[in-house]
Specification:
This protein is an alpha+beta fold. It has one domain. The chain contains one helix and five strands, in the order E-E-E-E-E-H. Strands 2-1-3 form a three-stranded antiparallel sheet, with no helix packed on it. A two-stranded antiparallel ribbon has the order 4-5.
C-alpha cells in the first residue's frame, strides 16, 4: 500500500499503486486511514483518537458545541 502523508505525518490517502510522493507501507492498514486521524510515526500507523469524529466522546463534544452555537446564534447565551 502507498500512503499520502502530510508534513505533520497525518495520513490523508491510501492507494495500492505507486503514485507521486506517496510512501510505501508494508503492513495492515485500517479502513479509516483516509479519515485524517491517523499518523505515520516511525513506520507505524497510529490513530489520533482525539481527532476521530466517530468516537462517542467526540460525538458528544460535537453535539455540545453545535448546541452551544445554536444558543449563541439565537441570542440565548
Amino acid at each position: 500500500m502507498y500512503l499520502q502523508v502530510k508534513n505533520d505525518n497525518t495520513i490523508t490517502d491510501c492507494i495500492d499503486y505507486q503514485y507521486k510522493d506517496y510512501v510505501l507501507f508494508e503492513g495492515e492498514v485500517p479502513q479509516s486511514v483516509n479519515g485524517g486521524w491517523h499518523k505515520l510515526i516511525d513506520g507505524v500507523i497510529v490513530e489520533q483518537v482525539e481527532l476521530n469524529p466517530t468516537t462517542i466522546a467526540n460525538q458528544i463534544q460535537d453535539a455540545i458545541d453545535n448546541y452551544t452555537m445554536e444558543l449563541i446564534g439565537g441570542g440565548l447565551l
